[in-house]
């Protein structure tokens, strides 16, 4: 089903994919039903010799029906997605690693706390467009914007969050597979938007420990 979706390496990605596929198939079925009905109407009510056009102001029952039906579907989807929303946005599990992301035109500044585990101190490390995290660990992101609205998007994690000037917005993920993955900006943010691209490197526990030791031994 939907093989064109990007690979999922997030613990909550499956829940998001389920909702996406459900909404996709609901809209696909409605779209096909409307198109089939439209073609049927074109054939059934096409111009014919001796047939006069009939003018109507509509059918109240039909109008009520096609207003109520989408409303019920939306309520159903809202209730169904509540638990996923709470898991992804409202509840952050116990955190293993915390990283700050400062978005700007047109880069991601990734800030790592040093051995003191505090931000804003001399041992902080700032890398441009490089997010390094350990696999199978909960990573908390503290997201900021230095100028305009950006959107931090990691397709393989099913993680996308706008960054807002003057606000801190927190998010989290847990990656399940090592590798290097793209971090584009998903919000039009200026002339250099298309080139705003970072990379997420998910490392094994040993590799991440070596990376940390190397970075803070300098």
Protein described:
The protein has three helices and ten strands, in the order ααββββββββββα. The chain is of the alpha+beta class and 218 residues long. It folds into two domains: 13-90, Orthogonal Bundle (Helix Hairpins); 97-215, Cupredoxins -  blue copper proteins (Immunoglobulin-like). Strands 3-2-1-5-8 form a five-stranded mixed β-sheet, with no helix packed on it. A three-stranded mixed β-sheet has the order 4-10-9. A hairpin with a 4-residue loop joins strand 6 and strand 7. Helix 1 packs antiparallel against helix 2 (60-90). 17% of the residues are buried. The mean pLDDT is 93.
Low-confidence stretches: none
**Morphology:** elongated
- CATH C-level class of the largest domain: Mainly Beta
Biggest sheet features: 5 strands, mixed
Q: Residue-averaged pLDDT, rounded? A: 93
Give the DSSP E fraction (strand runs of 2 or more residues): 25-35%
Computed structural class = alpha+beta
Counting DSSP E segments of at least 2 residues, the number of strands comes to 10
- CATH third-level topology of the largest domain: Immunoglobulin-like
Identify the CATH architecture of the largest domain: Sandwich
What count of helical segments does DSSP give? 3
CATH superfamily label of the largest domain: Cupredoxins -  blue copper proteins
What are the secondary-structure elements, in order, as H or E? HHEEEEEEEEEEH
Overall tally of domains? 2
The strands making up the biggest β-sheet line up spatially as 3-2-1-5-8
């Amino acid at each position: 089903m939907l093989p064109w979706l990007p690979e999922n390496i997030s613990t909550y990605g499956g829940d998001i994919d389920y909702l996406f596929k459900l909404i996709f198939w609901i809209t696909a079925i409605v779209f096909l039903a409307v198109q089939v009905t439209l073609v049927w109407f074109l054939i059934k009510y096409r111009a014919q010799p001796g047939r006069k056009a009939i003018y109507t102001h509509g059918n109240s029952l039909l109008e009520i029906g096609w207003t109520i039906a989408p409303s019920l579907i939306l309520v159903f989807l809202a209730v169904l997605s509540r638990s996923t929303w709470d898991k992804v946005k409202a509840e952050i599990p116990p955190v293993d690693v915390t990283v700050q992301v400062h978005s700007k035109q047109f880069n991601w500044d990734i800030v790592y706390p040093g051995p003191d585990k505090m931000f804003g101190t001399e041992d902080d490390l700032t890398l441009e467009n490089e997010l390094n995290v350990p696999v199978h660990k909960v990573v908390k992101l503290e997201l900021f914007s230095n100028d305009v609205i950006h959107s931090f998007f990691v397709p393989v994690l099913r993680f996308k969050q706008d960054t807002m000037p003057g606000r801190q917005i927190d998010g989290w993920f847990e990656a399940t597979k090592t590798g290097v993955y793209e971090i584009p900006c998903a919000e039009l943010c200026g002339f250099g938007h298309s080139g705003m691209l970072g990379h997420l490197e998910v490392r094994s526990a040993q590799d991440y420990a070596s990376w940390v030791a190397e970075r803070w031994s300098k």
